[in-house]
Design brief:
This protein is of the alpha/beta class. It is 31% helix and 18% strand. It folds into two domains: 214 residues, Vaccinia Virus protein VP39 (Rossmann fold, 3-Layer(aba) Sandwich); 67 residues, no CATH class. The chain has a six-stranded mixed β-sheet with strand order 2-1-3-4-7-5, sandwiched between helices. It has a three-stranded antiparallel β-sheet with strand order 9-8-11, with no helix packed on it. A two-stranded parallel ribbon has the order 6-10.
């Protein structure tokens, strides 16, 4: 519902610290199009503060208290809606959990505003929750609103990030617009390239924890370095040359670099594809939660670039019309 296909207006629901917005702005630049975020929301105060520090916008709070009529017209709706109700690390209560019902706030906004397209993101367990009934209800709801809707499970490690993080993306276009999922895999950036060279002592685990980790791996032999030592919920420890999925609510020491230290704030953000220009705010626990709740930005960027090419004027079209690449508020 924007002014033209050369200026894309989008909203950022359950925005967290802005992973979807980073991805959208990058996808628009790649397509040579202008764009503007006209609305954002998140119930978490610390996340809103980080969002403000980086984008200059203070997101609205509880979306359930915002009328759809109060949300500006927009072309694309983005929403990484809360996943705890469906996550394997939660109790997977789905729509019985208040967080699970927030999907229907997305649906009421789509019904009222009819944007040309949307992209949603959640944990992969959403597809199998309640034997697939939850996901089926979601897809039927979206299609009932007039959207051609499709889904795909994508892994961050296939998009250049040294993090094994599988997420389901749901893309919808109003009517029958063509859309193709990104299929070209990007080589993984070596973990060493993302790790900081000098890390303060406060990030290091205690001698007891480090010794317990060492005794539990490969018969006490030190694996290749650098690596991430991952402790799962049952206490089993695995060692990889990439990170397992960052989790918002996990213990301090569930991921240790070489079995010795915790990831720094910057390293966690890098694992999600956030640029080093991103400003993190708040305590370590807050940044850890925010990074764990965010999405892998390069994955979302690839999806959104494909969506933009399908639904809106290409950058080449805009350049022919204006004689230069489109510029806008990004």
């Amino acid at each position: 519902m924007g002014n033209s296909d050369s200026h894309i207006r989008f909203i950022d629901l359950f925005c967290g610290i802005g992973g979807f917005r980073i991805a959208m702005e990058a996808a628009l630049r790649k397509a040579g199009l202008a764009g503007e975020c006209v609305f954002s929301c998140d119930i978490d105060e610390a996340a809103r503060e980080a969002y403000l520090a980086n984008f200059g916008d203070t997101p609205h709070g509880d979306i359930t208290k915002v009328k759809a009529s109060a949300i500006p017209d927009h072309d694309v709706l983005l929403a990484g809606f809360p996943c705890q109700a469906f996550s394997i690390c939660g109790d997977r209560r789905g729509f019985e959990d208040a967080r699970g019902t927030l999907f229907f706030d997305i649906a009421r906004i789509l019904k009222a505003k009819k944007p040309k397209a949307f992209v949603l993101e959640n944990v992969r367990q959403l597809k199998t929750h309640d034997k697939g009934n939850t996901f089926r209800r979601i897809m039927e709801t979206l299609e009932g609103l007039g959207y051609s809707t499709q889904s795909m499970i994508l892994n961050a490690i296939d998009f250049g990030l040294p993090q094994k993080r599988e997420r389901v993306f749901i893309a919808g276009t109003l009517g029958q617009a063509l859309f193709q999922w990104p299929v070209e895999k990007i080589p993984m950036t070596p973990l060493a390239d993302l790790l900081e060279k000098e890390v303060p002592e406060r990030y290091y685990a205690s001698d007891r924890i480090r010794e317990n980790r060492r005794k539990s791996v490969n018969g006490g032999q030190t694996p290749k370095s650098p690596a991430i030592w991952h402790e799962n919920k049952s206490g089993h420890i695995s060692v990889y040359e990439f990170s397992c999925a960052l989790r918002a609510g996990a213990s301090y020491n569930y991921l240790l670099v070489d079995g010795r230290r915790r990831l720094t704030e910057r390293e966690m953000l890098r694992l999600q594809g956030f640029p080093d220009s991103f400003k993190y705010t708040g305590k370590y626990t807050e940044v850890k939660k925010q990074a764990g709740n965010s999405l892998p930005a390069p994955v979302a960027e690839a999806v959104l670039h494909s969506l933009i090419r399908s639904c809106f004027a290409s950058g080449e079209t805009v350049r022919r019309k204006t004689g230069r690449a489109a510029a806008g508020k990004l």
